[in-house]
Amino acid sequence: MVGRLKEKVNSFFSNRWLVFVASMWVQTCAGIGYLFGSISPIIKSTMGYNQKQLSSLGVAKDLGDSVGFLAGTLSEILPLWAVLLVGVAQNFVGYGWVWLIITGRLPALPIWAMCVLIFVGTNGETYFNTAALVSGVQNFPKSRGPVVGILKGFAGLSGAILTQIYTLIHSPDHASLVFMIAVGPAIVIISLMFLIRPVGGHRQIRSTDGLSFTFIYSVCLLLAAYLMGVMLVEDLVNVSNTNVMIFTIVLFVLLLVPIVIPIFVTCNQEPSVPAGAEEPLLPEAPKQDPGNSEQDVTQEIIFSELEDEKPKEVDLLPASERHRRIAQLQAKLAQAAAEGAVRIKRRRGPHRGEDFTLMQALIKADFWIIFFSLLFGSGSGLTVIDNLGQMSESLGYDNAHVFVSMISIWNFLGRVGGGFFSEIIVRDYAYPRHASMAIAQVIMAVGHFFFAMGWPGAMYVGTLLVGVGYGAHWAIVPAAASELFGLRNFGALYNFLTLANPAGSLVFSGLIASSIYDREAEKQAQATPHNTQTNLGSVLSTLLTADETLKCTGSICYFLTSLLMCGLCIVAAILSMLLVYRTKSVYSQLYGKSRT
């Protein structure tokens, strides 16, 4: 009895569903950057910064959120618990130091040093993201879309979750939010970090896995709807502290509900799929025998080239017949090579679907197509997110933060839905995952068009379409990159691709959108009629408004910007379909056999 109980406990802690659920909880702390808008006012007031200096801190935050080279590199050489610990240290030191400064416990630092602290603190979340995603795709190699979508979705919701927790604290000292950001993630992640690891998930395939994912999706939809309702209620109604506590307790219950899956799987343990039943995504190269190296090298080259050299009609045969034909091809090629009848070419680097290093991926056209498709698509979405307050203000809306909350929820649903629907495309049709990316980018183009027109209700429709499309990028791209360039160096590859986000924000939002807005605001200011007679009141008004930022009103403020973003999304969709055309055969090999 004791031995069986011990076996059950060991099985529970090595269950890939437990790792997945723990990764979801880790991701609730991986959206620290989304809270910058909440902590920036207290930093601005206590440090005496102007808007330009505060914008510098915002740029440092965006860079820290996206530059994950070190996190990706460390994930290849350190255990994932150590990667998480480095992220915790950075988050604690960066935001902890900021808290000590704004509360007067340490002397103030120059603006560049504050930018460094914000960068270091926010950069900690790249370690949380990397560890969660690496463990997820390695434990669920055949369900990468749902896994990545759910994990990235929880990262997108983390801002709303942490904000609700802070609302419960209800501290009159706004600097306490900075303290919570510094300490909260450390408590959560240190308690979970030894659970986040690869556990041989490909050997834990169960017949109930489909139901488990359905349950997780249901929880995600319920959580998104609940947070949306709570945000609206707390924004429109004066809610008592008791009700806030009840709202937060229900939130914690919803976050804890997924733990029933690993408990259920462990208690109802069923035989795993036999090792041979779960075919690898690509044939493994045969092992070499040191005693016959020349022949084995030839054999390895033959086998590794086989997927490129075999007739395409072989893929259309039944599984048993296909394996027999491949074996015949292997035998003929090996015999011909031994007799000198054919010359076997050596490959220069890995093929699609095999493990690439970052340097090997950087010389591949497919990698750069993904990067620029992500740059144009997610960059245009981030432009809306960064300018949503001014966009709503220019169209006459008073409560801009309502749209900020809404786009956070749509972003979450886009990530979850993008992973779900892209998995249907690859699993049921063996079709490239980027087809779903092209659909998401067309949806975003329609959303930008609504923003440009400025029709009644356009803010609601545009926020929905752009939020969903933007979120889908971060479910589809990591999964597609792992399929085309392998899992071994996934951390480094993923963190390079995330550079597309700040690059797009810098060019499209920081340069294009802001320049067009200022130009339109100046036109409106110059077109304002002035009385020929001046009086003391008009002189004083001019003096008071001379140093204020010009404001633009009407749909014209973002008309040209939105049309440009619409065009960029169309270009991104074309790039995605180009990648679909280039990788059809790869996905047919990866997933076509699962449909036979």
Overall helicity: over 70%
Estimate what percentage of residues fall within beta strands.
under 5%
Q: How far from one another are the termini?
A: 43 Å
Summarize the helix and strand pattern as letters: HHHHHHHHHHHHHHHHHHHHHHH
How many separate domains make up the residues? 4
Task: Give the number of DSSP strands.
Answer: 0
Shape category: globular
Give the helix/strand class. mainly alpha
Instruction: Label the CATH architecture of the largest domain.
Output: Up-down Bundle
Biggest β-sheet strands, sense, barrel: none
Question: What's the pLDDT, averaged over the residues?
Answer: 80
Q: What is the CATH domain class of the largest domain?
A: Mainly Alpha
The CATH homologous superfamily name of the largest domain equals: MFS general substrate transporter like domains
Radius of gyration: 27 Å
List the defining traits of the structure above.
596 residues; mainly alpha; 4 domains; 23 helices
Q: How would you sum up this structure, described in words?
A:
The protein has 596 residues and is mostly helical. Helices cover 73% and strands 0% of the residues. The chain folds into 4 domains: 32-199, no CATH class; 210-269; 290-338, no CATH class; 355-525 and 549-596, Growth Hormone, Chain: A, CATH 1.20.1250. It has helices at residues 2-13, 16-27, 36-47, 51-66, 69-77, 80-102, 111-139, 144-169, 175-192, 209-236, 241-256, 260-267, 293-309, 319-338, 358-361, 365-394, 400-429, 434-453, 458-485, 490-497, 500-527, 536-545, 559-591. Mean pLDDT is 80; it is low at 272-312 and 531-548.
